[in-house]
Structures are given as C-alpha cells and as structure tokens.
Amino acid sequence: MQEGRGWKWRKGGAQEAASAMKVAVPSAATDLRGAIRDNFQDSAYLLAFVVPDSDVNAFVNSLHALS
After folding, report:
1. Assessment of whether the complete model's pTM goes beyond 0.85
2. At the N or C end, where does the chain have fewer CB atoms within 10 A?
3. What is the pLDDT of residues 6-57, one digit of tens each?
4. Structural domain contains residue 2
5. Which domain holds residue 13?
6. Is residue 21 part of a domain?
7. What's the pLDDT at 6?
8. What Å distances lie between residue 11 and 5, 29, 43, 51, 57, CA to CA?
9. What is the number of structural domains in the chain?
10. Are the C-beta atoms of 54 and 60 separated by less than 8 Å?
C-alpha cells in the first residue's frame, strides 16, 4: 500500500495516542502498540492492546462513559 502525499506513520506512540484519544489503557493490558499519522490539518491515532477477559467489561464501560 502506498502512503498518501505528505504523511507517514510514526510508530511507538501508544501513550501519546491513548492520551490524545482520552483512553485509559488498563494496567493489565499487554502487547501495547500505537502509531500516529501527522497530516497537514490533523493527526490520526491508532491504539491496540490485549486485556484479560476479566477486564474487558470494565474497559468497554469506560469507553461508554466517554460519549
């Protein structure tokens, strides 16, 4: 896949992405990954991690509280 003109993904931005997205990453999260794409007018954030089954409902509820 060819990237668009003037932008590239910055890797290693998990904490920055979580902060920009106002998402609290659970302390039990593993395999935390993030990336940021800086554009001319805005930025795009990707955030991925794995949480144990026992923590999923609490995390999803915290996302619902954001809206």
Report:
1. no
2. N
3. 567 777 789 999 999 999 999 999 999 998 988 778 889 999 999 999 999 9
4. no
5. 9-66
6. yes
7. 58
8. 18, 18, 13, 21, 28
9. 1
10. no
In a domain, 3, yes or no: no
Read off the tokens for 30.
């593993």
Q: Is residue 1 part of a domain?
A: no
Structure token digits, residue 38: 């800086």
Specify whether the CB–CB gap between 62 and 36 falls below 8 A.
no
Lookup result for tokens 């302390």: 27
The rounded distance, in Å, linking the Cα atoms of 15 and 32 is 9
The residue with greater pLDDT, 3 or 57, is: 57
